[in-house]
Amino acid sequence: MKKKDRISLVVLAAGMGSRYGGLKQMDSFGPNGETIIDYSLYDAQRAGFDHVVFIIREYFSEAFKTAFEPKMKGRMETDYVYQELTNIPHAFQISPERDRPWGTGHAIWVAHDVIDGPFAVINADDYYGPESYVTLYNFLKEKRDQEEYSVVGYKLDNTLSEHGAVNRGVCQVDDAGYLQHITECKQIIRDEKGVISYPGDDGQVQLLNSNDPVSMNMWGFYPSYFTFFENQFDDFLKSNGSELKSEYYIPTLVDHLIISGERQTKVLHCDAEWFGVTYREDKEFVTARLNELLREGVYPVELWK
User: Fold this and answer.
1) In degrees, to the nearest 5, what angle opens at C-alpha 132 toward C-alphas 175 and 139?
2) Contact indicator for 157, 194 with CB cutoff of 8 Å
3) What SUPFAM superfamilies is this protein classified in (predicted)?
4) Distances (CA, A) of 91 to 54, 73, 85, 108, 234
5) DSSP three-state, residue 85
6) Residue 295: which H helix or E strand, with range?
7) Cβ partners under 8 Å of residue 180, min gap 6
């Protein structure tokens, strides 16, 4: 298979896991030590993805390769790319006090040498559900010539937590189904009557609909992303590069492309369930939910047998 004919999956796994207290990308959630990534790869391969790119930090690369290379052999081509602070498109004087890379938008760019065709992007510590991979794969395959970007829009109701407030990127969608903007809504809660709301900037309670589409950072792109990023990242560094914690996020670039008219982004509606791990306390719920999916027959107990 020619590389340009591949449809790739980019797994953002370079996070440090500071809030979790360790590398949650490598933590076990399944009955045989499976990570969340294992279930994501299983779903992606079944949907048709044939190439996976792991975006990681170099210091834990050997652990990653040991964990996933044997499982992927004969199933999906693999590449491992390092998101490091100094791996940027053009020279820039980086503060010696800065200790983190440049965010999710930058994480995708570091894969530019190993991707030649359409690709999906996911977080390593999020479970997206089998349907989402089928939806995104089919879109990337069908829209290859048009180079329309895409984002999977989950129903807000399927992403809320019973354990407290959450932050979600709510998608504003036009009548043709294209993304207009992503609004970051913080401290979203669902009360005992099922009403979903969050405190607005003006202190007034803002209501949300359970069917509102939200982005959980599952995207579809093409190699043109890399050029667009390079053009915009220089401006970002000039304005924000001296800040020790500044980051360039995926929606930052997508918003710019929508406003400039350079690319459209289709919102792919999906009824799948989403769940993820941010804090150590999330592990019990995620493990229990995966066990339920095993009992329901969604996954085999021996995932890679």
Assistant:
1) 60
2) no
3) Nucleotide-diphospho-sugar transferases (SSF53448)
4) 25, 37, 12, 18, 9
5) coil
6) helix 282-295
7) 172, 173, 174, 258
Which stretches does DSSP call E strand in the chain?
A: 8-12, 51-56, 77-82, 119-123, 126-127, 149-155, 166-173, 179-190, 196-199, 205-208, 213-221, 265-270, 275-276
pTM, two decimal places: 0.92
* Bridge partners of residue 267, in order along the sequence: 151
- CA-based nearest residue to 132, from 158, 102, 114: 158
Question: Encoding tokens for residue 85?
Answer: 């602070």
Give me the tens of pLDDT residue by residue for the chain, a chain 305 residues long: 456 679 999 999 987 554 444 566 788 899 999 999 999 999 999 999 999 999 999 888 998 899 999 999 999 999 999 999 898 999 899 999 998 899 999 999 999 999 999 999 999 999 999 999 999 999 999 876 678 999 999 999 989 887 778 889 999 999 999 999 999 898 999 998 999 999 988 888 999 999 999 999 999 999 999 999 999 999 999 999 999 999 999 999 999 999 999 999 999 999 898 998 877 778 898 999 999 999 999 999 999 98
- Superfamily of domain 3-295 in the CATH hierarchy: Spore Coat Polysaccharide Biosynthesis Protein SpsA; Chain A (3.90.550.10)
CA distance 120 to 97: 33
Rg of the chain over Cα atoms, rounded to whole angstroms, equals 19
DSSP category for residue 248: -
Domain assignments of the chain as residue spans, ordered by start: 3-295
Q: What is the Cα–Cα distance from 208 to 187, expressed in whole angstroms?
A: 12
Q: Which residues pair with 220 in a beta bridge?
A: 120, 150
CA angle (280, 103, 162) in 5-degree steps: 35
Q: Hey, how many other C-beta atoms are within 10 angstroms of the C-beta on 184?
A: 11
